[in-house]
Every structure is written in structure tokens, then in C-alpha cells.
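Hi Y.,

Following your request, here is the sequence exactly as I used it, all 470 residues.
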Amino acid sequence: MRAVIVHPRLELHFEALMPGEVGEKWVQVPALGCLYIREVTRQNGFECDYLDADALNLTADQAAGRIRDGRYDVIGMQVNSYNLASAVNLARKIRDAMPKAYIVAGGIHPTIFPKETAELPMFDAAVGGEGEIAFPAIMHALKNGEDVGAIQGVATKGRPFGGNAPMIQDLDSIPIPSNDGLPLTHYWSALARSRPVMPMMTSRGCPFKCTFCDRPEVDGGLRLRSIENVIDEIELRQSVGVDEFCFYDDTFTANKRRAMRLCAALAELPRKIRFDCRSRVDTSDDEMFQSLKRAGCDRVYFGVESGDPDILHKIRKYTTPDQVKDAVRAAKRSGLRTLGYFMIGLPDESHDQAQRTIELACELKTDFALIELFIPMPQTEAYSDGLRDGLIKHDYWRAQATDPDPKFVPPAWPGGLLDEGQDLVREAYRRFYMSPSYMVRSLFQIRSYEEFRQKVHGFFRFLKLKASAA
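Below is the corresponding structure, written out as C-alpha cells. Let me know if you'd prefer a different format.
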């Protein structure tokens, strides 16, 4: 039996989150979950490939054609809630081209809606939870004529679902994904200094409980890979010329002692790497930032979210604007470039509170800012609270999971900023990126042709944004 793991082309409704002039891709890297499942399936004795339809910019017809030509028996597909309609369209095309193929949906969306996903006519099964154990088990069951629906974490049509697959506690037990078949020249980041760029995760899960995030509900807490295992993966990537990485840990600095040990090991690599990582302002200090810099860290990303203390407390971020300022200053002192994530239109946020967020974003003078309109996502405390309190009138995420609408656009929080939220996001981008001081700082930071090209491209995007406000 032969399998292929597919990363569908993303067709996100960026306009729901941020202005269209901004909402182009900032990064293009392979789907880590797909690579892990491909590798563990191979280790179970099956042929398994990876098709990155997103990086290759394949239409649904083109991707289905490649899968048909590959004569695969089983197709695993990554599905997220934003991309559900696109994934469903691709699955339909595959079904038309290969009526006997067995199509399995996996990812965050089936983890939240396993039965709803499995009942869709184009899918045969859906995996809830991490798929490294469940997907090879599906392959074995199909090969041996056994009941796929009896596998823990696998939902099938017309039968009760027994619950999500267990979280894998020993992350070192998951084989490191190989390099073969990856279109490396297609992997990049608008914020990186070179390409190709590859993603990595040195941990899974997050110990924090922010109300806007689904991690507290769907993840199994913080789990760590060994330092040696991480170094092995980096050296494998370097063997094919990759020296730039995006560390996709939810919070790279969540465990300071372990992060310091990892940084020390990275600093000792014979061939230096460059990477970015995500941090919280209350889990880092000068010592941590200096260690990150020595290890090769170029960019650190902070989830600031809001500039208002009351909003930060309400969303259970439990940080303060002063902590944000201190952390950004400390990171800059260590020579790190910085990015701030901000949201407008959080629950119960007033116009004045949103303005404090915009003012903080401009005051921090981070090197980059990503500012989004808050969209309540499924399986988050914020979304559940909205349904419970009647602010959200119906469970539109479940309705979309049950009957996907290709024109579905997730709504913003139904509060006081519903009508002006997108205008405030546009204002935030204009004030941050079109200020003369930002342009001067940005030009002086260019270190390569790749950066120059990205800066010029970004400049003309933001000119359009400024013109649209005139």
C-alpha cells in the first residue's frame, strides 16, 4: 500500500483578519505535522510521500492530478478550520479522480470536530489528536482488512467516536523527518535574511491559558524534545544546505533552564545557524536574550496582544505594558530583531483601549508588527464564553464543520468594535509601517539582497494601504 500526505494550498480569508494589502504570505514552509506523519508511516513499512500543494501553488485539479498519477491507496490531508472549504474541494477532486482511494483528514480542525469531519462525504475517516500513531494504524488496518473505526483517535461514518488519540509524551520517539522530496527552493520567510527556511519544533504544547487560544483545550501541556534530538534534526537539515530556521514552539522560552541549555548547544554547532522563535515578555530577560543571540537567534516574536492592562488581564495574558516595554528593550540590547503580535477588537474592548494598543505598537519600535482583527476561533474559551452568554448567536464554526461553505468568512467579536475594527487595524498598519523613523531603521538593517527585495516589495504594499485611506 502507498500513501501520500498532502498540505493543501491555503486560501485564507485574510481580509477578515487584516487589510488585503498586508495579508499576503509572510512565510512559506512545509507543514511539520505532515512531515512527521510521512516519516513514521515509512518506519511502519509503507511507502509514503509528501505533496506540498501550498508551496508549489497547485490548484485543486493540479494536486488531484498528481495524486492520481502517483496511484496512491491512502491520502492523508492536513485540514484547519480556516482552510476547510479548500481542503474539502481538493478531497472532492481526489474522490472524482480516484473513487477507491481512502481519504483521511487530520490536523487541528478534525481534532476539534472529528465526527463532523468524518461524516463529510469526501472523507473516509478523520483523526482527532496527534496522528503519528493513528495514521500508521489506519494503514495497517486497511492492509489487513481490519476495522479502522476501532483505532483510538479515528472517527468514521455512522459510529460513535471513542475520543482523540493520546498525546505523545516522548517526543524523541517520533522519527526526524527526512529531507527527500521537499521543494526547498520554495521555502522562505519575509523576515528571514536568507533562504531556504525550514520550520522546527523543539517542544509541543503550551503551559499558559490565554482565552483566545485553542492550546489549553486541545494540547497536552508542555512536552519537550531532548537537546540531542533537536541537534540531530538541525544537522540533518544542514546536510542539504539549510541554515535558517523558524522555531515554531508556542513559547520557546517557557522553560528557561531548558531553553538556556538548548541555546548553549546551538552555539557549539560547527556550522552556525540563524533562527527566529516565539517568546512571552514574562519568560525572558537579558540573560535569556544574550543566550539566544549567541545561539544564532536573529528574531524574537512577542505575543503582546493588547496595550491595555485591563484587556490583558481579561484575556488571561497576565502581563503588563511595562513588562512588554522592558522585554523589547532587553531584546534590542542583545542585538535581536523583534516582532510584536497585536489584536484589535478583543472581547469588551473599547475604542480607547484599542487606541492604547496602536500607541503601544508604535512606541515599542519593534522591527516588525503583525496586527490582526480578533476572530474567536473554535475550542477557545473566548468562543465558548460568547456562545454561553448569547453574544455569539449560533455555533457557526460547528455549522461550517458540518456543511462547509466555500464563501464562509469568520466574523469578528460581536462587541463595540465590530463596525470599526478593520478600520482600526488599517490605521495601526499605516501608523507603524509608514512612519519616517520606521523606514529609516528598516533600511539600515538590510544585510542581504533577499532582505532588500522583501523590503521593496513590502514598501509598495504599504503604499497601497496608505493610498486606500486617502
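The mean pLDDT is 92.

Thanks again,
Q.
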